[in-house]
Design a protein that fits this description.
globular; about 0% strand; mainly alpha
């Protein structure tokens, strides 16, 4: 069931009706049934995989709790002399048992993710290498598998370190894993932040309900009016890129950047708005990434919950590992405790994270190189920033005009670096990405964008005007938000008649201007 279908809106209305019309303590049951019904209606064949993930992680976390309680009971019966002699060894033994359980469960769940997402591509590559016919495997990729796997694994690791109290009720934990608004493409929530909201139940809040509707409409606007329309122009140019000149090809890639942002963030807005209608607050996943003044800052604003997950569950354990500590010592020895000995390990750790992010996107070599590309930029920025911190280099004070020029330059460089990286994530293969990139710098003529450009793309003038005006409106709203203005609060503080005029006008405008063809097309990240 797609977010952008009338069936989803009818489904949501039914969920809201039943949720707020049964006793509060049982409302989580409505959410659980609704979530599994949503999954069955969307991807019935793949429900076994989400059940397997839920079951294995629930049982392992419960076993962690059991081991901890057994340890406490065992120590309670021992005298002080025994504890002084044997406690350390016993703790070490139980920790090893928990570590083995954790490792096996992680291997099982990431193994499922790897097999479904990468095995077919690897098998084809091996067959090609050995000059064998392709296997032509048709492997099902469950809806949102990366998102629910990462979210569940985060809970398991927190349970391992006793940061969360393992859930006793299997069905309540199943709700945390499968909560339907975030199932499609995130955000990746933390157990302590989301589970209490799901389980405790919420009272109906009219203002929060209206706020959720507004956020959903903003998501629909970004997806249906901008993203789907930008995608038409992007495909028209890049599928026939040899017909266009450099500036036109770059414009096509800008359409892809716009499409990807409005598609992904629009889907997240719909998810968060849906949850708000039920009184549940999901974590923010985007914070106006194209206002960033460095690639590092861009990634802090883009897919925030994935970045936070990587930081907490990969980066921190990596920096505390024995291998990484040996690498730090090696750097100190090689660079004689200079600035390089301190900044290079930090940069390498960040590079590794972005390499994983690239691999997470998919099995294609383009995604791997996308991770390498961003990793190298982050590596350089990390080294420069850490060097400035160590040397205590303070930023110079500039006049307003100079400061504006510096800010604009940083913005332009950051945007260009991000945009060029998208050549890799957009192209079907490395050769195509390389050809697109080379063609961008050939036959440069910005005048062509204003001559017969639209005629050659079969993109109507009306569509072009809608895309331009709607994008300008998006930039205006995000500029206001960047300055600290809370647009939804501003609307909801108006008189009720003004609010309803805005609601009806927005709905009418989205329906009128939508580029969606009604075929049930989904979001770019729903099968990641």
């Amino acid at each position: 069931m797609s977010f952008i279908s009338i069936y989803f809106l009818l489904f949501l209305l039914l969920v809201i009706f039943f949720y707020f019309n049964i006793p509060k303590k049982h409302r989580w049951i409505v959410l659980l049934i609704s979530s599994y019904l949503f999954y069955l209606l969307t991807d019935v064949r793949a429900v076994i995989f989400i059940i397997l993930t839920t079951l294995t992680i629930y049982l392992t976390a419960k076993k962690f709790k059991s081991i901890t309680e057994q340890q406490k009971e065992f120590f309670a019966d021992k005298d002080e002399e025994w504890l002084n002699l044997n406690k350390k060894d016993y703790v070490k033994k139980t920790k090893k048992t928990k570590k083995i359980l954790l490792t096996l469960t992680l291997l099982f769940n990431f193994g499922i993710l790897f097999a479904l997402k990468y095995f077919s591509s690897i098998a084809d590559s091996v067959a090609n290498l050995l000059n064998l016919p392709p296997l032509e495997l048709s492997i099902l990729l469950p809806l949102g598998i990366s998102f629910y796997t990462f979210q569940s694994v985060g809970y398991l690791i927190d349970a391992y370190y006793n940061k969360v109290e393992p859930e006793k009720n299997f069905f309540k934990f199943a709700l945390f894993v499968s909560f339907f608004p975030q199932l499609v493409q995130g955000p990746i929530s933390r157990y302590n932040q989301l589970a209490p909201q799901l389980i405790d139940g919420n009272n109906f809040n009219y203002n929060q309900f209206k706020s959720g509707i507004l956020l959903m409409m903003w998501g629909f606007f970004k997806k249906l009016v901008i993203a789907d329309r930008a995608n038409i122009l992007y495909l028209s140019i890049m599928d026939n890129y040899t017909m266009y000149q450099g500036a036109e090809i770059y414009f096509g890639m800008l359409c892809f950047v716009l499409k990807l942002y409005c598609d992904f963030s629009g889907g997240i807005d719909i998810a968060r708005g849906t949850a708000e209608c039920l009184g549940i607050n999901l974590t923010q996943n985007f914070k106006r990434p194209f206002f960033a003044l460095s690639v590092t800052e861009y990634w802090r604003r883009w897919h925030i919950t994935l970045g936070a997950w990587m930081k907490d569950y990969v980066l921190y354990p990596l920096t505390l590992s024995k291998g990484y500590n040996k690498f730090i010592k090696s750097c100190r020895k090689t660079f004689k405790n200079s600035v390089a000995s301190k900044v290079i390990p930090a940069g390498v750790a960040m590079f590794f994270i972005f390499l994983l992010v690239g691999i997470w996107h998919g099995p294609n070599l383009t995604y791997f190189l996308f991770g390498v590309y961003n990793g190298i930029i982050i590596l350089i920025e990390t080294i420069v920033n850490e060097t400035r911190k160590i040397k205590k280099i303070q930023p110079k004070q500039h006049k307003k005009t100079t400061k504006f020029f510096i800010t604009f330059t940083k913005f332009s460089v950051t945007f260009s670096l991000v945009a060029f990286g998208k050549y890799l994530s957009a192209a079907p293969d490395v050769t195509t990405a390389f050809n697109w990139f080379i063609a961008t710098f050939q036959n440069q003529s910005f005048i062509m964008l204003f001559n017969d450009f639209l005629t050659r793309t079969d993109f109507s003038v009306t569509n072009a005007i809608i895309l331009f005006v709607s994008t300008a409106f998006l930039i205006f709203i995000e500029t206001m938000q960047e300055k600290g203005h809370k647009i939804r609060e501003f609307i909801l503080n108006k008189k009720i008649i003004i609010q309803w005029i805005i609601f009806y006008f927005a709905i009418f405008l989205i329906i009128l201007l939508t580029a969606y063809d009604g075929s049930g097309g989904g979001f770019a990240y729903e099968n990641f």
